[in-house]
């Protein structure tokens, strides 16, 4: 774990554009840390992903998993390649295996557009969008304890798993996050359960536990939404959402909708957090269609690194890490001052290098 001089961070560049956005992000973190004083990093490069599976026959080799377990935090860029698959046709997804192995039940997906990026929604209140989707990340329809089956040539089945301990953990996580946000933003907090309890047993059970945990957090409002209606709310009036907690598959889908409403996959950071470990990773995948072309927007990766610094700051009482995270966020906002930078993803000219350069320049200009 952290020694006096450095945070040990396991680094997984993964596949595709992951390789283009990792090293420059680490350099930005080091520059921010240098400006806020006294933070050191012991970067531990780890090999895992679809290319690793193709070359070595295993997607998440033992030494990489051991490094992830030993690290203070894990920073992961993107994994998976559509052309590399398991014999049963599924894609290689060691990032999901890591969530299961390390018990990372809380997938934190902030939806907060960078202020200068052209808003996707026309309503003036689009600038007020600031909410967090918590995607339960270890069970639901992705539960490894109940893998899909093909009982016969004309049938396939999947099972949704919802268990009490994981629900309690992810609901408590959501209420604590809402309380922190309420304090920081100076307004009441609210957690919305996003489910389909009108149809499925698993979600009726989910709601029972949600009500139990809500009773332990009386200062935070608890409300309920069906996932279909919630998808509409995300488009029609997203400024009313605070923290929304949902099942794994629903969270997978809704967080891509959230990313789209921020401008695209390249703007959406995330974290997968458990009791002892956390992985920080952009919401996007390896984007093989643009890999190697210098077109990837690295903003999601940069903001994921800022989330990592803020999480390390909380866990280790290291305010300098929080300052470095804040500096990176400030630099992203400054780099995207209205009209200053339009990424390729939004039809502009700014590719990977241009974004890193602009954020790096802004980092030097800002007061630490
Ligand atoms: P996964 O299932 O692993 O999350 P995916 O199949 O949803 O991945 P992505 O790799 O995220 O797919 O790509 C979806 C689309 O978004 C692609 O057109 C890709 O080019 C685009 N995209 C993803 N990340 C970025 C990025 N950082 N910058 C620009 N475009 C991106």
Describe the structure.
This protein is α/β, with parallel strands linked by helices. A hairpin with a 4-residue loop joins strand 11 and strand 12 (278-280). It has helices at 18-36, 50-56, 62-70, 94-102, 164-185, 201-215, 227-236, 248-262, 299-315, 319-335, 352-365; strands spanning 7-14, 41-45, 73-78, 106-111, 131-136, 149-152, 155-157, 190-195, 221-226, 243-246, 271-273, 278-280. It has 11 helices and 12 strands. The protein has a 10-stranded mixed β-sheet with strand order 2-1-3-12-11-4-5-10-8-9, with helices on both faces. A two-stranded antiparallel ribbon has the order 6-7. Helices cover 42% and strands 16% of the residues. Helix 1 packs parallel to helix 11 and helix 7 runs parallel beside helix 8 (248-262). The model has no long low-confidence stretch (mean pLDDT 95). The structure holds adenosine-5'-triphosphate. Residues 17, 80, 264-266, 284-287, 289-290, 296-297, 300, 345 line the site of adenosine-5'-triphosphate. Adenosine-5'-triphosphate is lined by residues 17, 80, 264-266, 284-287, 289-290, 296-297, 300, 345.
Task: Characterize this entry briefly.
This protein is of the alpha/beta class and 368 residues long. The chain has helices spanning 18-36, 50-56, 62-70, 94-102, 164-185, 201-215, 227-236, 248-262, 299-315, 319-335, 352-365; strands at residues 7-14, 41-45, 73-78, 106-111, 131-136, 149-152, 155-157, 190-195, 221-226, 243-246, 271-273, 278-280.
């Amino acid at each position: 774990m952290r020694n006096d001089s450095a945070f040990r961070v396991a680094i997984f560049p993964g596949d595709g554009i992951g390789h283009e956005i990792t090293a420059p992000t680490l350099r930005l973190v080091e520059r921010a840390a240098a400006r806020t004083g006294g933070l050191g990093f012991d970067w531990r490069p780890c090999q895992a992903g679809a290319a690793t599976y193709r070359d070595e026959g295993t997607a998440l080799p033992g030494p990489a998993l051991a490094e992830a377990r030993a690290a203070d935090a894990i920073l992961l860029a993107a994994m998976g390649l559509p052309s590399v698959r398991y014999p049963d046709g599924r894609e290689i997804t060691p990032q999901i295996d890591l969530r299961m192995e390390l018990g990372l039940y809380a997938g934190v997906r902030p939806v907060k557009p960078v202020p200068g990026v052209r808003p996707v929604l026309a309503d003036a209140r689009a600038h007020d969008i600031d909410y967090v989707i918590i995607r339960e990340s270890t069970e639901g329809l992705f539960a490894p304890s109940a893998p899909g089956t093909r009982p016969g040539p004309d049938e396939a089945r999947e099972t949704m798993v919802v268990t009490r301990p994981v629900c309690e953990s992810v609901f408590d996580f959501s209420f604590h996050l809402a309380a922190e946000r309420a304090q920081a933003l100076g307004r009441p907090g609210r957690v919305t359960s996003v489910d389909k309890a009108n149809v499925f047993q698993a979600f009726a059970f989910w709601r029972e536990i949600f009500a139990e945990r809500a009773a332990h957090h009386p200062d935070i409002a608890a409300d309920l939404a069906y996932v279909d209606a919630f998808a509409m709310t995300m488009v029609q009036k997203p400024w009313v959402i605070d923290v929304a907690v949902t099942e794994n598959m629903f969270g997978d889908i809704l967080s891509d909708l959230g990313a789209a409403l921020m401008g695209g996959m390249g703007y959406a950071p995330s974290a997968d957090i458990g009791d002892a470990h956390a992985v920080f990773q952009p919401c996007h995948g390896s984007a093989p269609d643009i890999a190697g072309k210098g077109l990837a927007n690295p903003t999601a990766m940069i903001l994921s690194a800022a989330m990592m610094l803020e999480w390390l700051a909380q866990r280790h009482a290291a305010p300098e890490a929080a300052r470095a995270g804040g500096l990176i966020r400030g630099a992203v906002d400054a780099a995207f001052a209205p009209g200053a930078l339009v990424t390729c993803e939004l039809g502009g000219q700014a590719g990977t290098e241009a974004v890193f350069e602009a954020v790096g320049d802004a980092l030097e200009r800002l007061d630490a």
